[in-house]
Amino acid sequence: MTLIPLLTEFEKENISERQALPEKYLGLSDAEMDARISSARAKLGKKLVILGHHYQRDEVIKFADYTGDSFKLARQIAQRPEAEYIVFCGVHFMAESADVLTEPHQKVILPDLAAGCSMADMAAPDQLETCWHELTQMGVNGVVPVTYINSAASIKAFVGERGGTVCTSSNAAATLKWAFERGEKVLFLPDQHLGRNTAYKMGIPLDEMVVWDPNEIYGGLDPDEVTRARMILWKGHCSVHTRFTVQHIDAIRKKHPGVRVIVHPEVPWDVVQAADDSGSTEYIIKTIANSPAGSIWAVGTEVHLVNRLATELAPDRTVLSLEPFGCLCSTMFRVSPNHLLWILEELVDGRVHNQIVVPDDQKSWTRVALDRMLSIQ
Ligand code: SF4
């Protein structure tokens, strides 16, 4: 059965810029694609580096020189200054960050331009401008803006220019500590769940957090509520991770007594409370890989990583998806081996497609924000 993911807002806006995959790259056998990708890779040699996010499918990630979550991959970019082409098997915001972190001679390529992120689409620069302006009008001061790496370069630039930073799920707690050393409140966007779960784990009670709805005047909030709050959470979420529920946890505990439940902090707060542990994808991998052989785990994150944990990363444990049908990130899934093959064979012939270039007027402040992120552990 062929999966046809729904289009996100990002995809709808960018679809006109997207070059269709040439017909000759359709209908190839797996064996032919593997052989041709390997051959193109070998021809490009040190000029090429392929980065693969953990949520990519197996047929693609097996060709990655480096795998990891957003934070780890952002750090890897500096390791290969000699590479001319950085093919990022991930989603659009990751390729943008890579473009900002690379040297001018390096080109960052996203194999399918329709690989966006529905969460990143939930924060637009004009909405953030309005929010910032309205907070001032409400008399709310001492706000440090922090954006999750899952956001557009324009959002990162805005935050960087106003003394804020970017965070990832790996360094979110350290980032909030950093921000509270610089201000009284944090405006956290676009993922309310990562913001809430991280702040709560650090001891900030729920009644000191408010949710800012960018589609409402003054975020739909009363100035007193915002003045009392320490965390102003943007009303955004991940459509994959919010599918996990407490009912899933109850059901899996019943079916597999002794199971340990571990979830990504993009899941809702009540799910984190009902789980045994939570953390970034790198944390999840490390925790399960270091657990005793024979342990049983239910994992609340994207299904490709869960399957890979079961088969490759932690084979002596039983690793199950917390959601029985497995939660798939449809935009990550857009990067197919066919796209990767097309991109690489065109590079062999000197043609660059799907290059991601952050506009110059956003680059310097985005770089400031990303450098702050990389310095916070
Ligand atoms: S899993 Fe969620 S946050 Fe991550 S890329 Fe997919 S939609 Fe975006």
How would you describe this structure in keywords?
four-stranded parallel β-sheet, disordered N terminus, five-stranded parallel β-sheet, 16 helices, 377 residues, alpha/beta, single chain, Rossmann fold
What does this structure look like?
Helix 2 packs parallel to helix 15 (337-348) and helix 7 (153-161) packs across helix 16. The protein has 3 domains: 9-118 and 331-359, 3-Layer(aba) Sandwich (Rossmann fold), CATH 3.40.50; 120-238, 3-Layer(aba) Sandwich (Rossmann fold), CATH 3.40.50; 241-321, Rossmann fold. With 377 residues, the protein is α/β, with parallel strands linked by helices. The strands form 3 sheets. It has a 5-stranded parallel beta sheet, with helices on both faces. The protein has a 4-stranded parallel beta sheet with strand order 2-1-3-4, sandwiched between helices. It has a 4-stranded parallel beta sheet with strand order 11-10-12-13, sandwiched between helices. The chain has 16 helices and 13 strands. The protein has helices at residues 9-14, 30-44, 58-61, 70-76, 92-101, 125-137, 153-161, 172-180, 192-201, 223-228, 246-255, 269-274, 281-289, 303-313, 337-348, 360-375, and strands spanning 48-53, 66-68, 85-89, 107-109, 143-148, 165-167, 185-189, 209-212, 231-234, 260-263, 277-278, 296-300, 318-321. Helix 3 (58-61) links the parallel strand 1 (48-53) and strand 2 (66-68). The longest helix is centred in the last third of the chain and has 16 residues, at 360-375. Iron/sulfur cluster binds next to loops. Iron/sulfur cluster binds at residues 55, 91, 117-119, 150, 238-240, 302, 329, 331-332.
